[in-house]
Amino acid sequence: MKKLILIIAIIFGFIVASNAGDDKDNKYIIGKRITIKSEILNEDRSLLIYLPKSYSTNSQSYPVLYILDGSAHFHHATGIVQYLSSRGLMPEMIVVAVVNVNRDRDFTPIPELAYPGTGGAPKFMSFFKDELIPYVDQNYRTEAYKMIVGHSLGGTFATYAMVDFPDVFDGYIAISPFLHFQNEIFLDEIETKMGTFVEGKRQYFMTVGNEPQYFEPLARFEKIIESSIPKSFDFKYVQFLDDNHMSVPHISIYHGLLFIYSDWKLNPDNYDDGLKYLDKHYKKLSKKFGYNIRVPQNTINSLGYYFVRKGQHEQAIEIFSENVKRFPNSANAYDSLGEAYESVIWFEEAEKNYRQAVELAAQQNHPNLNVFADNLKRIQKKLNR
User: Fold this and answer.
1) Pairs from 313-317 (Cβ < 8 Å, separation ≥ 24)
2) 269-382 sits in which CATH class?
3) Alpha carbon of 247 to those of 251, 272, 360: distances in Å?
4) What is the DSSP string of 303-327?
5) Fewer beta carbons below 10 Å: N end or C end of the chain?
């Protein structure tokens, strides 16, 4: 039975989706494919890279989500990231999906005698920490917080990384991890090592579909974790019994990100406290995730419009003005401040800010350039210019 399970895990490696980032018609591109040379693995490795919508219009840095079985999960995972971040449920982030070469070799921490070539996870881990992550950090604006997502044998590797190299990643989503690898020798090793687990704030989210052969080893792993981990370690195990091995990844990534960023969502009941509430909220998030998290420009903007809707225009102008101060290169921030001034018939100030929005948008090739230009024309017409 265990050999059959391993065969299923191996077969999964050959079921891949097309490259979602390569749109030959240039209609809608969600990412790009690049290739780097790995000296450690002695081979070329392909990466699929997704950058947040705001990446080209500001200078901020972003957390990074690394995805194993990259071709299979790049498209749907980036859709989840885009959707949840646009709803204020998690931050925008860079997604790096690693395309497979030999998943049985790369993802397995110890050799399986029945499958020659397995047991290459230590070398693959060296590729991650000594080549891949440094490459991403050097070529993109990244924050220190890093996550990894792995399914099946990929979940095995994500768990191996958490136990043996706990300082490389901060968040983990392990989907149907094949932890009963090598007659549970891997689980035996985990049980031994978890007693000396390194302190530190981390999040680990584990799932499984309706896969009864996984239940017993994952239940054992859950007991090991709950009896060994420090209080700073957030752990959750969920069974999605309406899903199977092949359908569980999507729902797992969705709920995994919501678990990791469970404290991210703002409470509208506190909006009347203005920027004081936002600054306090993001200071708390910074402490949890271990890096300085600025209040996003769009979040401050939304707060400004909250006061506009309440008819409290003085407070709105104060908030929009602070947004411009904090994000002087944001065309959208200037446009919103212009709108606030226009609403109180302060047309001269409105024109000044609309003009600044148009100038910045033109420099940045901003998608809302035409909208900003229309606002400027409207206010100039009111000023008879």
Assistant:
1) 313/340, 313/343, 313/344, 315/274, 316/340, 316/343, 317/341, 317/344
2) mainly alpha
3) 8, 43, 44
4) HHHHHHHTT-HHHHHHHHHHHHHH-
5) N
Distance CA 47, CA 33 (A): 6
| The one-letter amino acid at 149 | V
**Mean pLDDT for all residues in the chain:** 90
- Is residue 90 within 8 Å of 261, Cβ to Cβ? yes
For CA atoms 64, 68, 72, 77, give the dihedral sign: negative
| 208: number of Cβ within 10 Å | 26
Are the CB atoms for 135 and 38 separated by under 8 Å?
A: no
Strand 171-175 versus strand 94-98 pairing type? unpaired
Confidence of residue 370 (pLDDT cuts 50, 70, 90): very high
Residue 370 CB-half CA count within 13 A: 1
- CATH H superfamily, domain 2-260: Alpha/Beta hydrolase fold, catalytic domain (3.40.50.1820)
Helix (H, G, I), strand (E, B) or coil at 354: helix
0.85 cut: is pTM over it?
yes
Task: Delimit the domains of the chain by residue range.
Answer: 2-260, 269-382
